[in-house]
Design goal:
This protein is α+β, with helices and mostly antiparallel strands and about 325 residues long. Helices cover about 30% and strands about 30% of the residues. It is built from seven helices and 19 strands. The strands form five sheets. It has a nine-stranded antiparallel sheet. Strands 1-10-11 form a three-stranded antiparallel sheet, with no helix packed on it. A three-stranded antiparallel sheet has the order 5-7-6, covered by helices on one side. The longest helix has 25 residues. The protein is globular, with a radius of gyration of 19 Å. It starts with 10 loop residues before the first strand and ends in a 5-residue tail after the last helix.
Length: about 325
């Protein structure tokens, strides 16, 4: 089974996207293409004249590669084999997987464990994943030059909180290698913006207001320039039980699903993997602790907090500077 890391759903790239295979459409001076990815979709807006067939093939190659390496749902993936291996010691994985694990551990340290790639078994306990084993074991993991080492045989990895952002980074690199300097790419809600819109302006991206079941309600429009943006929220992929909503986001510190008024966190960063993981971590930390970390580390972050019937915005100055409307 392919990776189903569709844990966010609040970001939509500006422009008329469509679902389906990696086939191009035209919108003004743009070419639009897309296809399935990680239980969700990928979409791209490219300038007219771009080689849409080559771009689509390159992005689909990235999606297949990341899925084959990092899907916890696939027994034949690198992560699947790592998780099933009952013995401690170094486990050979490819360089991209080592890089993602290293970044995940760096974000875990930065956030005091609010982001934890080892809590897959705890996530599965609430019905949101397939991983079994020991839940929580950051101190049992290490990244070596050619392997990821676990000192406890039951330690597992679930990279769904960062792999989609990593795939976005690789898709961006693939387009750049084809000479496509201007592009907007969405990977299941995570956004990469390179260069300029075909009209010559900066790319504009909508942050969707959470909780809207009908037509899209836009909370903010932001401009992005050679940056990635990711969001994490409590609405996608949750379920209702016993009269209350249960979210897929688990607080590694308490071992329980998130509760509280924080609805969505959006983060802008140079790296998709970083933005992806930080959005989850700041959700876990909550409005006050998360905002304090974002300010201290100079992040561009937006917190949407449920306040009665409406939403209250809390954001860093770096995010405020990106707001167009």
């Amino acid at each position: 089974m392919s990776m189903r890391c569709d844990r966010r759903g609040f970001l939509l790239g500006a422009g008329a996207f469509f679902a389906g295979g990696a086939r191009p459409a035209r919108a003004g001076a743009s070419r639009i293409l897309g296809g399935p990815a990680f239980g969700s979709y990928w979409r791209a807006v490219l300038p007219e004249g771009s080689d849409a067939a080559a771009a689509g093939a390159a992005i689909e190659t990235v999606v297949r590669s990341v899925d084959a390496a990092m899907s916890p749902y696939r027994a034949d993936s690198e992560i699947g084999r790592f998780n099933r291996d009952p013995l401690p010691g170094p486990k050979a994985v490819t360089a991209p997987t080592r890089a993602v694990v290293a970044e995940a551990l760096a974000i875990a340290r930065l956030t005091g464990g609010a982001f934890d790639p080892t809590i897959g078994p705890l996530v599965a306990r609430y019905g949101f994943g397939p991983v079994t084993g020991i839940a929580g074991g950051l101190d049992t993991l290490g990244v070596l030059p050619d392997a990821v080492e676990k000192s406890a045989g039951g330690t597992t990895l679930d990279l769904c909180g960062i792999a989609k952002g990593h795939a976005l980074d690789r898709a961006a690199a693939a387009l750049a290698a084809l000479g496509i300097a201007d592009a907007l790419v969405e990977m299941g809600g995570e956004i990469h913006a390179a260069g300029r819109h075909p009209e010559g302006r900066a790319w504009q991206v909508a942050v969707e207001a959470p909780g809207s079941d009908g037509p899209l309600k836009v909370q903010r429009i932001v401009t992005l320039a050679d940056e990635r943006m990711a969001s994490s929220g409590i609405a996608p992929n949750g379920f209702r039980e016993g009269g209350r909503n249960t979210t897929h986001i688990i607080d590694p510190r308490s071992g329980r699903p998130l509760a509280g008024r924080l609805a969505v966190v959006s983060v802008i960063a140079p790296s998709g993997a970083t933005a992806d993981a930080l959005a989850t971590a700041l959700m876990v930390l909550g409005e006050e602790e998360g905002m304090a970390l974002a300010e201290r580390e100079g992040m561009a972050a937006l917190f949407l907090v449920t306040d009665g019937p409406g939403l209250r915005e809390v954001m860093t100055d770096r995010f405020r500077a990106r707001i167009l409307a």
